[in-house]
Write a structure and sequence with these properties.
Layout lengths: L14 E4 L3 E2 L3 E2 L6 H7 L5 E3 L8 E8 L13 E10 H6 L5 E3 L5 H7 L11 E2 L6
Parallel strand pairs: 3-8
Antiparallel strand pairs: 1-2, 1-4, 5-6, 6-7
Organism: Amazona aestiva (Blue-fronted Amazon parrot)
InterPro entries: PEBP, PEBP-like_sf, PEBP_euk
Protein name: Phosphatidylethanolamine-binding protein 4
Length: about 130
């Protein structure tokens, strides 16, 4: 489990589920069994579930890297891996995420402000590389 500053984003019981690993939210991904490589090259997007989602609302889901390209030099902070909008709460509760996938360059803070998204209802993070740098 992540602790200290690394656990800053861990709130709201958001589940990020990968094959063989289960929920990696607020976790450090181990090197064993090539998990780190498999996350980025083999498994693709994880299953994301938020059991507390309001069935009558729509949600925005972002997967960003807060310290890209590395923890020592995060010059591309909040690098966007993917962004899905208009996800029905009922689907997010079950992990059946369907919505509009957006692409293009971006600044996360500007996007949140422009679309008046407010504060996150849940967030998590996990580390795959550079755990100690």
């Amino acid at each position: 489990m992540l602790s200290g500053g690394d656990s800053f984003f861990c709130r709201g019981d958001l589940e990020v589920i990968y094959p063989e690993l289960g929920d990696v939210g607020c976790s450090y991904i181990p090197k064993c069994h090539q998990y780190r490589e498999r996350i980025s090259r083999e498994w693709g997007s994880p299953r994301v579930r938020y059991p507390q989602a309001d069935k009558n609302k729509k949600y925005v889901l972002m997967l960003v890297d807060p310290d890209a390209p590395s923890r020592a030099n995060p010059r591309s902070r909040f690098w966007r891996h993917w962004l899905v909008t208009d996800i029905p709460g009922a689907n997010l509760r079950t992990g059946d995420v369907k919505g509009h996938v957006l692409t293009g360059s971006w600044a996360m803070e500007t996007f949140v402000k422009q679309f008046r998204l407010g504060s996150p209802v849940a967030s998590t993070q996990f580390l795959t590389k550079h755990h100690q740098d």
